[in-house]
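Run: sequence + KG4 -> complex structure.
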Amino acid sequence: MYILAIESSCDETSVSIIKDGYEEIATIVLTQIDIHKLFGGVVPEVASRHHIENITIVLEEALKKANMTMDEIDAIAVTYGPGLIGSLLIGVQAAKTLAYIHHKPLIPVHHIAGHIYANRLVEEMKFPLLALVVSGGHTELIYMKEDYSFQKIGGTLDDAVGEAYDKVARVIGLPYPGGPAVDQLAHQGKDTYDLPIPLDDDTYDFSFSGLKSAVINLVHNEQQRGHEIRKEDLACSFQNSVVEILTKKTMKALKEYQVNRLIVAGGVAANKGLREKLQEQCQKEQIHLVIPPMKYCTDNAAMIGAAAYYAYQKGKIADLSLNAKATGELKYEKVSNSSS
Ligand code: KG4
Ligand code: ZN
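>> structure
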């Protein structure tokens, strides 16, 4: 089954053709990072305008790269949410148009299901498993007892981890997106600043706004005193606090839910510090760990095409009333005609 998938939830316009949920035939990702860098973050209105300009180009490129025509495509998949509403609408409208013109089924995919299924492009997913979802908009621990079944066991109470990275980066003068820059700097520094380990309790929830504020206050206080900030050390101390709590709660959940498989998903899965610590801990506890390669960690349509194959198996097909949704949890939804 060849699925043509579209992703446009934030600042990447992407189209991919995926065979049977795991084989990548062709993927094109057009990122707007250089445009949003000028503003220090994603500007929603600017993002949607660029999606409009890019969507047909990306679509044509993907088909050309795959050496395929629309006749050979079996279904159209699209991220319907969550994300920036103006950006999502471009992808959803394009997908509905293609499905209508070419008489193909339309498969709605939740963005986080996509991030999780990026792992299917790496290897077969065996269940039960635990997914740690860490991105610019999400920080969640999700238990999966089978394909396309999602039980959230914890999540952030405020900022997402990627969001905290981006804000910390900004206050220490690093360009957008801050995550990769902070990660790189952290590896050159030492953990010398005393920062809190956020929400270090018995729940599986996370909170990153306190840690973010602690960094911001520290920077302002040092500036007022005329002291120089050791950026590498501050990045290292911040990253250690983040990695410590993410790893601690994930390992605890694996134990409590008696799961020996862990997958990591989302943009922050690209973080070197997090990857290293999880690898070390999982090896110790004999947990099978899968982290997608960098290109599948950040937003792309290949992961949407992989998730769509399993969504389709569960009967998740939308009609042309499908609408984009800016918010909404990933949950197991019973078979229905149109997805919400
Ligand atoms: O998954 P993604 O592409 O978009 C969302 O769905 O949110 O994630 C983007 C986020 C940004 O906040 C970015 O700073 C962060 O992932 N990120 C990282 C790294 N690479 C990307 N954060 C920490 N370390 C990294 N190496
Ligand atoms: Zn994402």
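>> summary
Residues 231-256 form the longest helix (26 residues). Residues 111, 115, 135, 266-267, 299 surround zinc ion (ligand 2) (CB under 6 Å).
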